[in-house]
């Protein structure tokens, strides 16, 4: 069980607080000040690892080493950025990293239309309403930045998105088939290094799992996962199953997806969170982890993991801001800590049944 942490310079949550959450053994971390596409310096990786270890926690999962857009677009310069990515994998492996969570989403890593939707119980959570999605991506960027509470938002690097119009233009000829082709090129290039150094790449689902702003998405459902799996046959070509992201499409049967891929050893990382649908069009807000608070059956999800003998890495995902906390949207301390306690409680019950 782990807890995502954004580093002492950009997180109002301390490692000592994380250590006090019962059952929490590791931190899921990253270097957030390294530009996308650059090599992660060994000394900075080692410093992060020492910080975490000195707090009595492990650092074995990195989220995320983001992929440069030139790789996703398929530009000639992609080979240079792939070489940098390979060196980063080698550097992380020297620090004992076992899993790298990443995504292959064009332009926007994830998006919501409200980062502080007020809930009936007085807490607030992130929300997505299709009708409120700005037609202009620039307006969406402004909206996200305004709602960030002064924190950085993972996947919304300001230096990368500063030239948004040019970025959209570069993706103009990239459809779903081309994005899949470029993903295969990337995986074929890095997998020999991953296998040599025993580092698993765990692709994160698209969030939301549907095309937006005319941009393609390639990890939306089980059919997409089977296609990604075939791109390179290796246990290092693995998945992050995010119940919230995949669950945003009601047609996705999460326990069925877990039961399909965990026995094949293709799931390296789990994000377990709940969401609450507010209409039949798929609009939702994020919720407390309990099944009764959302639209996903968390017991069925955890039982599927237990029945398939999942022994990989797991963390709670986006929570609410509760008890007056005014933290990074989706990444407050208290609700994620409650989520860990709830998930580990289900697991203990399953172990004793």
Tell me briefly what this model is.
By secondary structure, the chain is of the alpha/beta class. The protein has 13 helices and twelve strands.
Task: Explain what this protein looks like in three dimensions.
39% of the residues lie in helices and 15% in strands. The mean pLDDT is 95. It contains 13 helices and twelve strands. It starts with a strand and ends with a helix. With 353 residues, the protein is an alpha/beta fold. The strands form two sheets. An eight-stranded parallel sheet has the order 1-2-3-4-7-8-9-12. Strands 5-6-11-10 form a four-stranded antiparallel sheet, with no helix packed on it. Helix 4 (78-94) runs parallel beside helix 8 (176-197), helix 11 (254-261) packs parallel to helix 12 and helix 12 (298-307) crosses helix 13. A hairpin with a 5-residue loop joins strand 5 and strand 6. The relative contact order is 0.13. It has a single domain (2-352), classed as TIM Barrel. It is an enzyme of class 4 (lyase). Pathway: Carbohydrate metabolism; pentose and glucuronate interconversion. This is Mannonate dehydratase. One of its GO terms (molecular function) is manganese ion binding.
Number of β-strand runs: 12
Order of helices and strands: EHEHEHHEEEHHHHEHEHHEEEHEH
Number of domains in the coordinates? 1
The level of helicity is: 25-40%
**CATH superfamily annotation:** Divalent-metal-dependent TIM barrel enzymes
- Shape descriptor reads globular
Note the gap between the termini.
21 Å
* Low-confidence runs of at least 5 consecutive residues: none
CATH domain fold name: TIM Barrel
- Structure annotation, total helices: 13
**Order of strands side by side in the largest beta sheet?**
1-2-3-4-7-8-9-12
Per CATH, which architecture?
A: Alpha-Beta Barrel
User: Strand portion, in percent?
Assistant: 15-25%
GO molecular function: ferrous iron binding; manganese ion binding; mannonate dehydratase activity
Protein name: Mannonate dehydratase
Keywords: Iron, Lyase, Manganese
Catalytic activity: D-mannonate = 2-dehydro-3-deoxy-D-gluconate + H2O
